[in-house]
Amino acid sequence: MNDQPSTAGAVAFDPAANGWDRVKAHNFGELVGPIWRRGDGLFGFVAGDKHRNHIGRVHGGMLMTFADQAMGMTGRRATGEKPHATIELNMQFMGAVELGDFVEAHCEVVRKTRSVLFIESKLKVGSRIVASGSGIWKILGEA
Asked: I need a labelling partner for 3 at 20 to 30 A (CA). Which of 108, 124, 126, 130 fits?
C-alpha cells in the first residue's frame, strides 16, 4: 500500500453534479452502491461508512465487488446486453482508499470471443491507481 495523501476530510464529491449518471441497481448491487457511470467503461462510487473495514479504510472486498460489477457492466455493453457470469477475477491492491474518496473504475474489454470476455480495470482515486483487476466472463446467451 502507498501512503500518498487522500481526499478524506474534503468536501464530498457529487457525481451527479459532475456529469455522472446513477446506475440502476438490483438486489446485491443496491447494497454496495450507489454506483455511477460516465460513458462506456467508466464507473465510480463515493466511499462511505458502509464500505469501511476495521481500520477505517475501504474494505478490499468492496473494491473487488466494485471492480467485478464495473467490468461486468462493461462486458454487457460489449455483448449487446447478453447475460454473462464471472469465471475468474484477479485483483492487486496498491493503495488505501479513505472514506469520502471517489473511486473510479476504468474498464476495457481486452478480448471478446463467441463465448468469453477478457476485461481489465484500473481503480483510481484522482490520478492515483489504488487497485488493478482482470477477469474472464462466460457469455451465457441472449438477454
From this structure: 108
What nine digits make up the cell of 107? 474498464
CB 64 within 8 Å of CB 89: yes
CA distance 35 to 29: 8
Q: Using CA atoms, how far apart are residues 86 and 138, in angstroms rounded to an integer?
A: 6
Domains held by the chain: number: 1
Domain assignment present for 78? yes
Instruction: Tell if the pTM clears 0.70, that is, is over it.
Output: yes
Return the C-alpha cell found at 7: 481526499
Copy the grid coordinates of residue 123.
Answer: 481503480
**Which amino acid does the sequence have at 72?**
G
| Position 120 in a domain | yes
